[in-house]
Design goal:
The structure is a homodimer of 238-residue chains. Chain A is α/β, with parallel strands linked by helices. Chain A contains eleven helices and six strands. Chain A is globular, with a radius of gyration of 18 Å.
């Protein structure tokens, strides 16, 4: 029997699971750092530092201290702070361009071949904390064949809050158990399971670079586990 | 010079402009009417009657008398009332199937060839009162190549309220003048223009059947006017 019986829609974590954010951000950061005479700053460290500000920024929204604010805005605030930390005085156009690096991330090599197969038998959509425009621009540039762009913005809640998962199932007209989250992150899957979704772990051992120490294995008995989107398609009989 | 200079995204009315709702609803209504021994009811008249309940149902939401409710729910309430009018006692499965007829509408013949060309040079998305699932299922079935699924549900406002147009531009990260509404309905275009969007009229002379008497011509000087999506692509240099 194929994996995930009864699951009609697959929703995907994006940063790390669908695309390689660290390589993409480092690539574009390198351009801006060089332009401003800061070739001494390691672009991968810059990418990591930008990403470290991600959870605290969303936590302001999750806690209710701040109304729902889309990720492009949070990314920009975090970029401005990071540039200030490095005493880099990039102009507005450079900041806008670098902030859109999150729209220009490349998929892992197995992402698109796997999604094309999965789409033939299931409804597929992102369930990302990225905003609609970010995810749609990424898909348009990279040819990611989503059926719809879902996630924090239409749900108006950031993962791992239960509303992010439950409202996504509601938008899809499905019971939570008819939706599976596909993610490379055990924490995201744990929150999805708590909300009643099915779970699929896909290992991404170099999301954080060659010495990654987190999410190097499935930490619970997820409903299915795969090493790539193509293996996931195999397991689902797609 | 090509039409709509400065416009980066095209957003589309869907029912009537992208798809032929009347033919599609009549097709599936015919099946249910026959099954329940009501071959005497004209399926096109049934489609028209269902559609006549559309604006009053949304008006409950627009007026604030009712919280935002997605179109699948409004369609279902209207269907139940219409079946009661005809004393048809269809079971739950038949009602669910017929309500999803709105997810199974076919595009006009020029829709997909035109959209493929337009997508190559612009961001394209629906700006419909249909909910996300309805529009996404329609796109998946018919191969409509949207870049994202926008409209009343992510904007949480029904056209022609200004918020439906303005929040869509905001989601796209664009000024209203950088977004054009493409529609076969003068009223929709008038509301979009009032909100600051650019406007493109596409004539759909048989949306309401062979004796259509409304929207048979452009009633204002819209920014561009075309007889099909392919002609629109020509005018935009796509």
């Amino acid at each position: 029997m194929s994996a995930l019986p009864g699951v009609k829609a697959l929703v995907f974590d994006v940063f790390g699971t669908v695309v390689d954010w660290r390589t993409g951000i480092a690539r574009d950061a390198k351009t801006v750092l060089a332009k401003h005479g800061r070739g001494d700053v390691d672009p991968h460290a810059f990418a990591d530092a930008w990403r470290r500000r991600y959870q605290p920024a969303m936590e302001e929204v999750r806690s209710g201290r701040r109304p729902f604010t889309r990720l492009d805005v949070l990314h920009r605030e975090n970029l401005d702070a990071l540039l200030a930390d490095h005493s880099i005085t990039a102009d507005e156009a450079d900041r806008q361009w670098l902030n859109r690096a999150w729209h220009r991330l490349d998929p892992w090599p197995d992402t698109i071949p796997g999604l094309i197969r999965l789409k033939s038998r299931r409804f597929i959509a992102p369930l990302s904390n990225g905003n609609i425009l970010l995810l749609a621009n990424m898909a348009k540039r990279a040819g990611i064949p989503w059926d719809a762009i879902l996630g924090a913005e239409p749900a108006r809640a950031y993962k791992p809050q239960p509303e992010a998962y439950l409202r996504t199932a509601e938008i899809l007209g499905l019971a939570p158990s008819e939706v599976a989250l596909v993610a490379a992150h055990n924490g995201d899957l744990a929150a999805a399971r708590k909300a009643g979704l099915a779970t699929a772990f896909v290992l991404r051992p170099t999301e954080h670079g060659p010495e990654q120490s987190t999410d190097t294995r499935a930490e619970q008995e997820w409903d299915t586990i795969a090493g790539s989107f193509e293996e996931l398609a195999d397991k689902l009989g797609c």
